[in-house]
Amino acid sequence: MSLFLRLACLLACTPLLPLSAAPTTPAPADSDRHPFPHNVTYAHGIRPKGFSQKQMNADLTAMWQAWRKTYLLSAGAAPGELRVSLGGPKGFAISEGMGYGMLISVYLAAPGNTGKADFDALYRYYKRHEKVAKGINYGLMAWRVGPDNKIADNWVAPDGDIDVAFALLVADRKWGSAGEINYHAAAVGVINSLMKWSINKPSFTVSRGEFESGYTMSSYHIVNYFPAFAAASGDARWHQVTTASYAMFNYFYKLNPAAALTPFTFMVKDYGFSKRGYSYSYDSSRVPWRVGVDYLWHGTTHSPLARTMPAANARWLQTVTAGKPAEVNVAYELDGTPKGTNRDPRVTVPPIAVGAMVDPAQQKWLDTLYAWIREQVPGTETPGARPSYFGDAVMISCMLVLTGNMPALDSLPATPAADTREAAARPRFGPR
Questions:
Q1: For burial by CB atoms within 10 Å, which of 15, 266, 280, 390 has the most?
Q2: C-alpha–C-alpha distance, residues 247 and 250, integer Å
Q3: Domain 3-429 - what CATH class?
Q4: Residues 262, 287: contact at Cβ < 8 Å?
């Protein structure tokens, strides 16, 4: 274990110290209904063995502090705001990164640390950079913002907004919505904007932008969140998005069941070849994480594929790497054969580690994957693994799951106001 992580073990139960130039205002001691650590046993699946809960919390805490120091910046943001930078003060911020930042911050927030302050500051930045075109506010963040705090690319990539919406729902469960930010109303606003602008109709696949698209991305189909979107918004069409997502996953599972990999992009009409990329790589590497979490939270309620697909992904990775996580490529053809020789294991390994959590038969492989992941330090090169904004953000997001610190929304008791809101919505559209 690295010296950095050994020191973190000693600090796991102490308040976190600020490690970046970001504003750091600890939350009041009595304001969080569901603080970190969550220490959950998921309704389904397994977790790493051989590591105590205290140790896993320390591993996650150390990663968060290193990630926060490297990527969470006030430079390039307005007062009271934070942004997730792709690379230092001169780096751009993108909506995807803001989604990761809010998801990480909300689950790691606890009295005495900066999680809530970070979350609120990230949301202010997200909100102030919404796409506006021809007088229409889309209610979703413009994809890319420069270090000069100006929008550089005024289009929508919805994966970040999807994470933001879910993080806001978690924030409502943790802190209620009677303060400066009405988290629930903000979440529903983003959810409704996503349905309006970023869901293809009639296919109900997730669009690659804010318009009906001929092609889209498999990683935008974040099936573990969509039931919560239906419940919060009262819009039953989100269940159609879940169904459409699994129909797409089923196509690619049947195409190559031994690997069960999904492509970067595909054509909406027939899941066919897209010239923008039809191999398993950076973006689609997130699919085993998202589908795996759906199984951990909901079992096979939405599809048997919630278990069979991530399990196949994990078995394939063990075979293709001969059980050595750092030996993984970053890109593969859909049949599981390597494409090129570029390696970026922080991108590929953590999502498939979550995938291994669906299958008790893969307990030893899951333990091997976790043992490798916990040695990684965001922002710092380790043997066989280089740091990057994307790999480090995906890695710590998956660590939330691996360590038992990403409970399902339904497992977090709501405030009385939230109970009333959701009870009022359900009779109109049936059960959740």
A1: 280
A2: 5
A3: mainly alpha
A4: yes
The values of phi and psi at residue 76, to 5°, are 90, 5
Q: Report how far residue 16's alpha carbon sits from residue 38's, in angstroms, rounded to the nearest whole number.
A: 16
**Hey, where are the domains in the chain?**
3-429
Q: Between helices 237-255 and 305-320, what is the axis angle to 10°?
A: 40
For 208-265, the pLDDT digits (tens) are 876 667 899 999 999 999 999 999 999 999 999 999 999 999 999 999 999 999 999 9
Q: What is the spatial distance between Cα 84 and Cα 90, in angstroms, rounded to a whole number?
A: 12
pTM for the predicted model, two decimal places: 0.91
In whole angstroms, give the CA distance from residue 393 to residue 163. Answer: 13
Look up residue 288 and give its two tokens: 């085993």
| Contact (CB, 8 A) for 170 and 106 | yes
Quickly list DSSP for 21-59.
Answer: SS---PPPTT--SSPSP--PPPSSS----SS-HHHHHHH
| Contact predicate 108/57, CB 8 Å | no
Please check whether residue 192 is in contact with residue 236, taking contact to mean a CB–CB distance below 8 angstroms: no
Neighbours of 214 (CB within 10 A): 11
Q: Under a CB-based contact definition with an 8 Å cutoff, are residues 154 and 133 in contact?
A: yes
d(CA 397, CA 393): 6
First to last CA, the chain: 44
CA–CA dist 335, 100 (Å, integer):
29
Cβ atoms 209, 196 nearer than 8 A: no
